[in-house]
Write a structure and sequence with these properties.
By secondary structure, the protein is mainly α. 64% of the residues lie in helices and 0% in strands. It contains 3 helices and no strands. Helix 1 crosses helix 2. The termini are far apart.
């Protein structure tokens, strides 16, 4: 039972992280779009993304802000190190026979 809760929590955390990442990417991609006026759907979506980001992510002025930032930095550094790490033949389970 405890394992199911961990998997559920991990999936939920992953989904929230993906939603945050795509919100930031959407805002960055459409930040200088050609606005069509008061009823611009892109502006409405950007405002919605900003509102969701403000509700989900901790504020920089709070003490709880440094822990998630540090956690994300450690994850990114670990992913980059794993990506560029050279694998040995033993790790790849290559059989060396003549």
């Amino acid at each position: 039972m405890n394992n199911k809760k961990r998997i559920t929590a991990l999936c939920l955390a992953f989904a929230i992280a993906i939603a945050l990442a795509f919100s930031v990417l959407f805002i960055a991609h459409n930040s200088e779009h050609k606005c069509s006026g008061a009823d611009c759907s892109i502006c409405a979506q950007i405002n919605n993304c900003v509102e969701k980001l403000n509700n989900i992510s901790p504020k920089p002025e709070t003490s709880d802000f440094s822990a998630p930032v540090l956690f994300c930095a450690v994850l990114c550094v670990g992913a980059v190190i794993e990506l560029f790490r050279k694998k040995s033949l033993i790790e790849l389970k290559v059989k060396l026979s003549n």
